[in-house]
């Protein structure tokens, strides 16, 4: 080729020859540059592969052979790398938003939300030693493991408490809202009269003369500000709602008659308000009566740690007459003042939440409930969850029965749209849609079943305190104390306070005279207390309620035995509890005097049976008169071992002669509680 070029060049002019040489030189130079670039490219690829291989070796992976230099080998390596990248991408989904997962979410639900086969999720948990199936609810720890492994963010929504935790408002979003007030007090002290006077004289101008009370709550206006009153003043309903975690009331009005002073139900109302940590205003009513003595009421308040303001304390007392409509404006002024002092606020611009204060099943309209809005706004069409049910708001009615489109903060309304009749005290939460509501209700149902299995509602007992005695943390033993007289009540309370230690404190939530009532059980359940009775008993209704609520009832006739049990519990030396299982109930209908033997009670067996030798106690007017054993049982002239319900017999109580007609004999069996 060089000879041919030279031969051709010999026939060219010097100028043409010079041009040809220039072109050939450029081609040669271009070829060298191309070869140099190819070599550089090969070296760069090799360098990258070597770095990747070094990384794999450092992480403990098996070092593979040096990447082949052929194009076919490079193509194979590229395909393998692409497959590996695709698998990694499939394993770790790129999820931009935070997933909303129900409490107790299943493997299947997570799989569907992150688009990863459930088998991969189960394999990850299996490698950790967790054996789960596709429909098994996962606890938060396992969800966190899957979150880290598959790189997704989540938030758990489930129980009412967690829903409430999610609804945390910034201070700047909170606005003043009307206070919600409950009126409590002793029977015949004027609660209902006061509520009627306030409602009839202070309703909004648009309602004047035409108000119709269709629901158990209403709003009044005073100096252009609203106040919501709940027309269910009973302290039992008040505490029932609190026991379910619903603090519906912002302020409690304690009504005390100036002519009666502090009475047992007044004390209960005060203790219930204290337990709920609700500010109190004392309305001293009936000051128009000649026998009225407001100072006597104020003095009585000091015995319950409520010192009136004019006596240097911080308890607001307002002297009123509901009958004569005296100082009603002053009472309303004090309500607004307390509301301002406690900064009662809410966020009006978010999803609504409310508390149910009463409910019913209407034959035409179905389940319906009266609610008070505690946060945000309720709108017609909103999906919601409450208790163990869900629904969608079909209609909202105000206190006059008029249909409205929305309910605002602190407004009492009646709503339709429940799947089941809810319970008083249930919280209602507006959620995004029906799907979220269904997830929450399903989880609640699961929690309810697990709760029944685990008996998670168990309250503290003396045995629990005994087991906790070796712990260093200070413990508080809360008691609801009932006795047969004020003298016994004070003596027991004083004795219990004397046995306090540095690391164990006794908190008497409530003390009163009389039998152990259902109200006592409700208060004990709400405040995690033990019910202690001295010289009194609990009727069957209270016992059943205590069993349902997981509240322990302990009754004593000897004060040192009560005190000793508490002391032993403090030391961790509490003896096994001997439970008295009721075996029968007997009514004394006649009395017979037998020479050399004494009094024989002619009895009728009301319930169960009575057996010779059984422990028994004599009850008179709800108080324990004597406790001993059945010495003998007679049927006609025969001495028998036991008698069943529906039969008459003669019973003699060991070492007891003072038995009266109408007394009740409770017969027991003693069993050691393991």
List keywords for this structure.
674 residues; alpha+beta; Rossmann fold; 6 domains; six-stranded mixed β-sheet; six-stranded antiparallel β-barrel; 18 helices; 31 strands; disordered N terminus
Give a concise summary.
This protein has 18 helices and 31 strands. A hairpin with a 2-residue loop joins strand 26 and strand 27. It is α+β, with helices and mostly antiparallel strands and 674 residues long.
Report on the biggest sheet: 6 strands, mixed
Helix content: 25-40%
Strand order of the largest sheet: 5-6-4-7-8-9
CATH fold name of the largest domain: Rossmann fold
CATH architecture of the largest domain: 3-Layer(aba) Sandwich
Strand coverage percent: 25-35%
Overall structural domain count: 6
Give the averaged pLDDT, no decimals.
76
The structure class reads: alpha+beta
> What's the CATH H-level superfamily name of the largest domain?
P-loop containing nucleotide triphosphate hydrolases
Taking all Cα atoms into account, the compactness measure Rg is 40 Å
The 3D shape can be described as extended
- Identify the CATH class of the largest domain: Alpha Beta
Distance between the ends? 112 Å
According to DSSP, the number of beta strands is 31
Low-confidence stretches: 1-8, 55-69, 87-91, 203-214, 242-246, 451-458, 469-474
Detailed description of the structure:
- The protein folds into six domains: 2-90; 99-157, no CATH class; 179-343, Rossmann fold; 353-453, Translation factors (Elongation Factor Tu (Ef-tu), domain 3); 462-575, Translation initiation factor IF- 2, domain 3 (Rossmann fold, 3-Layer(aba) Sandwich); 581-672, Elongation Factor Tu (Ef-tu), domain 3 (Beta Barrel).
- The chain is 35% helix and 29% strand.
- The protein contains 18 helices and 31 strands.
- It is extended and about 165 Å long.
């Amino acid at each position: 080729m060089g000879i041919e070029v030279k031969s051709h060049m010999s026939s060219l002019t010097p100028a043409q020859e010079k041009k040809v040489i220039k072109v050939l030189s450029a081609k040669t130079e271009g070829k060298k540059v191309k070869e140099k670039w190819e070599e550089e490219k090969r070296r760069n690829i090799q360098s990258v592969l070597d770095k990747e291989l070094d990384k794999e070796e450092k992480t403990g992976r098996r070092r593979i052979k040096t990447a082949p230099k052929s194009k076919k080998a490079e193509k194979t390596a590229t395909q393998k790398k692409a497959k590996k990248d695709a698998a990694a991408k499939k394993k770790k989904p790129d999820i931009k938003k935070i997933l909303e997962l129900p409490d107790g979410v299943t493997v299947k639900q997570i799989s569907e939300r992150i688009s990863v086969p459930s088998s991969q999720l189960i394999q990850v948990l299996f490698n950790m030693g967790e054996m789960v199936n596709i429909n098994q609810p996962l606890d938060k720890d396992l969800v966190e493991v899957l979150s880290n492994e598959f790189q997704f963010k989540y938030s758990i929504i489930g129980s009412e408490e967690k829903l409430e935790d999610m609804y945390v408002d910034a201070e700047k979003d909170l606005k003043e809202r009307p206070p919600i007030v409950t009126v409590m007090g002793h029977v015949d002290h004027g609660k209902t009269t006061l509520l009627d006077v306030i409602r009839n004289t202070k309703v909004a101008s648009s309602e004047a003369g035409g108000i119709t009370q269709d629901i158990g709550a209403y709003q009044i206006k005073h100096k252009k500000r609203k106040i919501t009153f709940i027309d269910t003043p009973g302290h039992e309903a008040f505490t029932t709602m609190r026991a379910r975690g619903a603090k519906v009331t912002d302020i409690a009005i304690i009504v005390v008659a100036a002519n009666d002073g502090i009475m047992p139900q007044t004390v209960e109302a005060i203790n219930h308000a204290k337990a709920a940590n609700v500010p109190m205003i004392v309305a001293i009513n009936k000051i128009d009566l000649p026998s009225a003595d407001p100072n006597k009421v104020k003095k009585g308040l000091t015995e319950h740690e409520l010192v009136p303001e004019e006596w240097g304390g911080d308890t607001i007392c307002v002297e009123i007459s509901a009958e004569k409509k005296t100082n009603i404006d002053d009472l309303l002024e004090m309500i607004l003042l307390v509301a301002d002092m406690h900064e009662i606020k809410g966020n009006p611009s978010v999803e609504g939440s409310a508390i149910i204060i009463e409910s019913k099943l209407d034959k035409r309209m179905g389940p319906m409930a009266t609610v008070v809005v505690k946060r945000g706004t309720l709108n017609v069409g909103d999906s919601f969850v409450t208790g163990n049910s869900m629904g969608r708001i079909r209609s909202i009615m105000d206190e006059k029965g008029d249909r409205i489109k929305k309910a605002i903060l602190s407004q009492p309304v009646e709503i339709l749209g429940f799947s089941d009749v809810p319970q008083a005290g249930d919280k209602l939460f507006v959620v995004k849609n029906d799907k979220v509501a269904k997830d929450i209700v399903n989880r609640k149902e699961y929690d309810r079943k697990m709760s029944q299995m685990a008996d998670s509602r168990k309250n503290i007992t003396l045995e629990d305190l005994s087991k906790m005695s070796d712990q260093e943390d200070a413990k508080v033993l809360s008691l609801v104390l009932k006795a047969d007289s004020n003298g016994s009540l004070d003596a027991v309370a004083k004795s219990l306070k004397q046995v306090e230690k540095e690391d164990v404190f006794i908190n008497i939530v409530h003390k009163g005279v009389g039998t152990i009532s259902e109200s006592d059980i409700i208060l004990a359940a709400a405040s995690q207390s033990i019910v202690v009775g001295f010289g009194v008993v609990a009727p069957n209704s209270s016992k059943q309620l205590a069993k349902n609520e997981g509240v322990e009832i302990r009754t004593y006739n000897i004060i040192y035995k009560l005190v000793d049990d508490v002391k032993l519990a403090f030391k961790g030396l509490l003896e096994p509890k001997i439970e008295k299982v009721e075996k029968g109930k007997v009514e004394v209908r006649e009395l017979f005097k037998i020479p050399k033997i004494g009094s024989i009670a002619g009895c009728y067996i009301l319930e169960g049976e009575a057996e010779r030798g059984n422990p028994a106690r004599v009850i008179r007017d709800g108080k324990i008169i004597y406790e001993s054993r059945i010495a003998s049982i007679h049927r006609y002239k025969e001495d028998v071992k036991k008698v069943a319900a529906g039969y008459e017999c003669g019973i003699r109580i060991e070492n007891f002669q003072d038995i009266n007609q109408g007394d009740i004999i409770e017969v027991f069996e003693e069993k050691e509680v393991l």
